[in-house]
Structures are given as structure tokens and as C-alpha cells.
């Protein structure tokens, strides 16, 4: 069954859209091929979960019952944690942290910015979706500006002092975009006190910043309907059995991806896709009365610094004696600093292949 079939735009590769290197259509997919394979597809917004009655309620009033539910609900943006920011304010200061119209809005603002203008980016403290994502975005915006607005500046106002792949990003910035990107760590800004969308300003404890384009990435949490159903246990993220992905608060409900606390695994697209595959096998075993196998989970997170310059971080994770997914010692790691351009080009090609293979697998 298909009702009100819509399309899905991926957050991975959306930064390339902002940099005008790909059209939005290239990261947008429908569900028709999934439905054609014999899967019942219902497209609708979930507004409530009843873990006792084992049902989901959709915005259009439909109620769906389940034996076991697998949720991958993503994140909710905490607009109110940034004084002066709101969903309405995101039309002036886009977050672009959910791909689609916000992606296009930030792309168009960047393209229309005056020569020599300033881009401000506010980045939250951990945890949030895609830890290296803001710095890839700054890189690709610089890639665009270098060609089209070479005297422009980008200022990153960070809610933390260090960030994912920092040595690799800063090495690339110094090489590709010298003097264009300034990173202001929390120790040097003291935290964002508020924003003024009308004046395009960000106030911090130590300094006020004014920009021509302002990208506010607010703090995040699991979506409201998940927390309202008690899956957060009073917190902002879902606690799960890290072997089965089953909620510790709601038996029969499994949570994967950004909304869950999954041990040492980061909130990345690669992580979510791997968790989905493992969780499917776990649920199939449980439904048939079998004991699920324990396996090893992987993550590789690629970032573009330019269209032909990629960097990555990888991890291998295994359940330990305490039931926590822990990084396996001596595995994974980041791309090496000081690598030749041929290595960076190969990583960019690997990223393209990963995305093509993943979206083909997910959407047919």
C-alpha cells in the first residue's frame, strides 16, 4: 500500500548541494522501487508512539500496530536553546541540518552574498548529527567562494574546543583556503548568548559577530514523539540494549541511528545503515524464537574538503562484557596528515562510491 508517496533528500552529500556542485535532485529519492519489491509503504508523519498498546499514530489519523517496531527517527532541532532563534528565524538564518528546502535556501544565500562578505556558522556542542558535518560544510562553502567570491570570509563559532578530524581539516584549510576560514573555539567565544535574525548577528560571551550569511546549527535531541513515549528515560536520547538495539524503556521497540545512544559509534549515516542491517537480523531472529548472533559493527565517515579532496575516519565496534559497543583497540583511525593529493583524490572517489552504493541499496 502506498499513500501520499513523497521523496527523501539525504543529509549526506547535501553540503555539495550548498556548494552548487550537485543539484538537490541528485540526493533525492522516492519509495516507488521499495514498494515495487513487495514491501508495504506508508508515507506519513508519526505523531505518537504507544509502547504499551504497541501502536504508532500518524498525523492523518491512521493507527499502525506492530509486534516489534524499528525506529530510525533522526533528530529534533532545539531551536529554543539558541536565544532569538526559532523555526521562523531559520528562513533568515538557515540551519540546513535537515536536507531539502533549507539546503537550497543556504545555497542561494551563499550564491547571492556580496563580494567580500562574511559567512557565520554556529556549531553546537556534542552530541549532534554528523560530528564532522559543519566543518565539511565550511570547507565546501570555501570551495565555492574561492571560485566565485575569493575575498569572502567564513567564521565558525564553535560550542566546543576540538572537533572531529580537526588536524585533517585545518591542514586542508591552510593548503586550499589560506586565510578564508577562521575557527573560533568555545574557549575564545564563551558560548552563544543569542542571535538577531534581523541584524544577522550572533552575540557571544566575549565578542559579537555580524555576517552576510548566517548558518545556525542548533543543539539536537531525539524527536518529540519518541521522548513523549518515554524512550528517553528522562533524558534527550534513547537508551538501548546495544546488542539488540531494543529500548531499555519500551520492550519491543528498537531504535537505530541518530536518536539513540549506541556506545562509541558516532551519529553518522554509515553508522545508521550498518545498525539497520544488524537490527534487521536481530529482529528476524527474535521473531522466530532464536538467539541473535553477535557481530562486529563498522563505521567509515567521509568528508569532502573540496570536490576532489576527501578525508575519513573509521571505527570497528564490538559488544564488551558490560554490554556496551566499544571501539576495538588497534582498529580504525583517521586518514593520515601530510598525505599526497593522490590519497585525498582516492578518498573523494571512495566517498562517491559509498554514497552511490548506499542509496542504491536503500532506495533500489
Walk me through the structure.
By secondary structure, this protein is α/β, with parallel strands linked by helices. The protein has a domain at 77-220: FAD/NAD(P)-binding domain, CATH 3.50.50.60. It has nine helices and 22 strands. It has a four-stranded parallel beta sheet. Strands 19, 20, 21 and 22 form a four-stranded antiparallel beta sheet that branches. A three-stranded antiparallel beta sheet has the order 3-4-5. Strand 9, helix 5 (166-176) and strand 10 (181-184) form a beta-alpha-beta unit. The protein is globular. The model has no long low-confidence stretch (mean pLDDT 96).
Q: Which value, in Å, is the CA radius of gyration?
A: 21 Å
How is the CATH topology of the domain at 77-220 named?
Answer: FAD/NAD(P)-binding domain
CATH architecture group name of the domain at 77-220 = 3-Layer(bba) Sandwich
CATH superfamily of the domain at 77-220: FAD/NAD(P)-binding domain
The dominant shape is globular
**Poorly predicted regions:** none
Any chance you could write out the topology, listing elements then pairs?
Elements: E1 7-9, H1 14-18, E2 28-30, H2 32-36, E3 46-50, E4 55-58, E5 63-65, E6 69-71, E7 76-77, H3 101-112, E8 118-123, H4 133-148, E9 153-158, H5 166-176, E10 181-184, H6 186-189, E11 192-196, E12 201-204, E13 208-210, E14 213-216, E15 220-221, H7 224-228, E16 238-239, E17 253-255, E18 260-261, H8 269-287, E19 297-306, E20 309-319, E21 325-327, E22 333-334, H9 341-363
Parallel strand pairs: 6-17, 8-9, 8-14, 9-10, 16-18
Antiparallel strand pairs: 1-2, 3-4, 4-5, 7-15, 11-12, 12-13, 19-20, 20-21, 20-22
